[in-house]
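User: Can you fold this complex?
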Amino acid sequence: MAKVGVFVCHCGVNIAAKVDVKKVVDTLKDMPEVGFAQEYKFMCSSPGQELIRKAIKDNNINRVVVAACSPRMHLPTFQKALASEGLNPYLVSMANIREQCSWVTDDPAEATQKAIDLVARQIKRVVHQDPLDEIYVPMTKTALVIGGGIAGIQAALDIADGNRKVILVEKSPSIGGRMAQLDETFPTLDCSQCILTPKMVEAAQHPNIEIRVNSEVKKVDGYVGNFEVTIEKKATYVDAQKCIGCGICQEKCPVKTVPDDFNAGLNTRAAIAIPFPQAVPAIPVIEADYCKKLIENKCGVCAKICPAEAVVYDDTPKQETVNVGAIVVATGYREMDPAVYTEYGGMKYPDVITGMQFERLISSTGPTGGELKRPSDGKIPKTVVFVQCVGSRDESKAHAYCSGICCMYTAKHTMLYKHHVPDGQAYVSYIDVRAPGKTYEEFVRRAIEEEDVRYLRGRVAKIRRLQNGQYRVYTEDTLVGRAVHIDADMVVLASAVEPQKDAVGLAQILGIACDADGFYTEAHPKLKPIETASAGVFLAGACQGPKDIPASVQQGSAAASKVLALFAKDTMVKSPQIAAVDPTACTGCLTCSYVCHYSAIEEKEFGKRRVAEIIPGKCQGCGACVATCKGKAITLAGFSDDEIYEEIVSCR
Amino acid sequence: MQIEKEPKILAILCKWCSYAGADLAGTSRFAYPANVRIVQVPCSGRVDPIMIFKAFVEGYDGVMVSGCHPGDCHYTTGNYHARRRIAVARRLLEFVGVHPDRMHFTWISAAEGKKFAEVCSRFTDKLKNLSGTEKTLARKELAT
Amino acid sequence: MFLFQPCVGSNKYPGLITASIEFFRKLGIELVTSDDQTCCGGFLTFTNVAQPTSTMPAVARNIAVAEEMGLDILTLCNGCHTFLTEFSHFMNDRPPVKNVVNVILSMIGREYKGNQDIYHSLEIIYKLKERIRANVTRPLNGMKFATHYGCHYLNGFKKTALDDPHMPTIMEELIEAMGGEIAEYGENRTCCGTGLTQIIINKEELSLPHTKMKLDNLNAAEPDAVVVVCPYCLAQIDRMQQKLNYRRSGKYRVPVIHLVQLIGLALGVDIVKLGFDAHAISFKDFLKKFDSIHAKAEVHNG
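Assistant: Here's the predicted assembly.
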């Protein structure tokens, strides 16, 4: 026999100003279901909760209705109060007489009548609420990190140091990401490879980290604590266990026309190659579209000369499903191709290059061995113009956002240029100079004061190729109000930071959202920059938005801390408000399984029949199957037909 | 049958978006007519057309169902199922003789407090202007 | 279609008009001209000699002439095209202005409706590229052409722009379709210099050095001819070479040919109708080379 305790809150004056709380209590205390009714100023406070506990203890009430604010505010508070007194926490219901009554109704009489109505309905509803027990699902304490750039490496290292296992999946043949392509980093001018490779090696040697390169995530099933991830390793045609990394295959390969992505397209390489000398792992991959053996069954030199017999021409993509408890997405960014800027030559001029291409030219592992030479004729450029904001801050042709790193790396480029060509002259065309980080402003000042870099505030209107092989850059100096043209030997375009090409596809696989620019959306832009709306999936690095190396490292560590907090528990608590099938009523049509987004419904044998069965661990409690079942054989705990209809029916 | 008093409206709102939107209307103090009664469901996909019919039988003058915007459903696909079911429900309502304007299906997100208040006000006005010459399903009226 | 005759064309290079009529006929399109037509008024407006309030009715009147025949308009000049298009869009978007203009036109018994389309010949020709390719009787084999689109084509108001304003390619495609080769030069998108001439105000000092710079750059690429799509550009590049030669500023002899003349040449239109005699820089060497190609071809084929 249900005995309901009713507590009507004043919420200070928030409710009491419009709702006659006393009248509500007086009207409802005589309802047959009600065993106890009381009003109080602040139900969520400690004394308020004490009232509930006292009523449970002294008045034998076994159901509770709290008429107060929205259940989205304080339902957990009152559930805890019930639990502390030994009453099942799912036997409380809240009537929303603040956000959905006193705050939106002008007339006090109407507000009071509405409040009475709302509370009465909850009283009738709560009688139908059954006690429910929490569900505990085991937590798989392995993390998946997608992306082997600096953010992903940092996240993997921190999780691994926290004594948890990590699977680090990387699409390309080596970890390292963008940072591996850089020559020196701002603001310290540290050699990028020198500070990165120790971390790469640490990740490779860490007992808790399993690196899978040449691999992509194809499918993600499950939910936080219990993800089932399908990883596909592409065909590489080289046995990683046997390869000794000698590199002779790359030397002897007759095909040399594969575009070299590591060098930002500045040169080509062999069909079998290690991406760069410091690659981790340093195991070559055959590019199937270019390999003579794979296309027309000719050549085969690499297999013949490999001392370890590691070349395997009949390799195929392989899929494997792994169980992980949390996922960190660290897939990074790519540099925009500025071909859309036809006023700058549409990337058809060989000496008008992007920031990353400049980085490769001055890099000792780059196509020119670190000598800064013009791609067209190999001469050393004596005048270089660096153009900021190409594709950024430009709604008309590309992106409205600021890419965040270009002002700093342009200053860096001018300094490195002067180190390579001491008698050269560098110009920078800028709109603003954004140098917010620690010692960043001082860094830019160094470029201007020590390296005599001329900063011209103005956008470049046009770049025209002159007959003598130079490029006339038409720009302006708005600070003196003059149009300027500079005849440059080389022009470097600081091209925008963009999300990876397949960012949207991966988002759909993971069940996370992208914003309008294609970067992944965080749960809250201010307070939850690492979590996503999908529990258990975290973001780190430039895939969430343009950022520099320190910020990527910070986010990598932040994501790791979220994962470690998650893994600190042995089991995941799951809401028990899930659906269940009554096999005696089920006809086995399985229509419910078609609407279930979580694949939580399976076939089961029930005597001689087949019926539907819902897997408690997978069900998220949406109720789509409940509404679909024609025979009404499925019940959703907490939102059953009885409960909902009781709310609808009690209409005054 | 003229509607003389304030029309009674049942609003079935999904927990993640529309109910939150209604809360936001409260937090922002956007007032709307007091005749709206809100029932929370975890997802608009939980809404069974029978619930809507039940509401009319119990004397509601109008029923409103609201879920997350397409693409934003917390359970990913629930609101699509809702949309299809409501479309069928609407045809059935017409067949039975209830004016189609008495049922309103909309998408309200957790950020659209103002929209919620406006939808309630407009729905109330629309119901007031209905001629009421169509058949009614209301149990009380049928009995007399 | 209604052929809107460019004033510089009618006065200085009549070959443009006859060439157009002839080769369009070969492609199956009949061009109609009218003596009722006047200057488009662009030049007067651009040089600030006349106000738009005076020239707009003139533009409307010219378009009305074509409208009365129910024909779309084809222009051979960047200036005509930009001017007619801009003003017609202006009038169409602003009914009060259109009404005032029509009040004026009604005094001479005409009305501007704004329902006909105005096309630049380059756009129509590009759409007929395959038809042109199929009808070439005298291909331009081995001859090198430099292209000059002109500012009002590249930067003018175009609702249905076919081409990229910074790296245009349609003229190159047409030339190659007719068998010619392209001579690339750096200053290919530089203004011809007409705009700086402002003949009436006579600022040759600005214009001439500019055109010289373009010509020097052009000559370094050693083209057989420069192809233009505007009679103003044609006049400037052609006649300024003559002027520079008189002033002993250099030896300039690159013949300047309008695209319609070039197409006429390739499609077998009678040489006389192409009007090369009106050009300042002689076509003698060009035609000699052209004929010799075909003589050789005939020897091979014969």
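The first helix of chain C runs from residue 7 to 12. Chains C and B do not touch (no CB pair under 8 Å).
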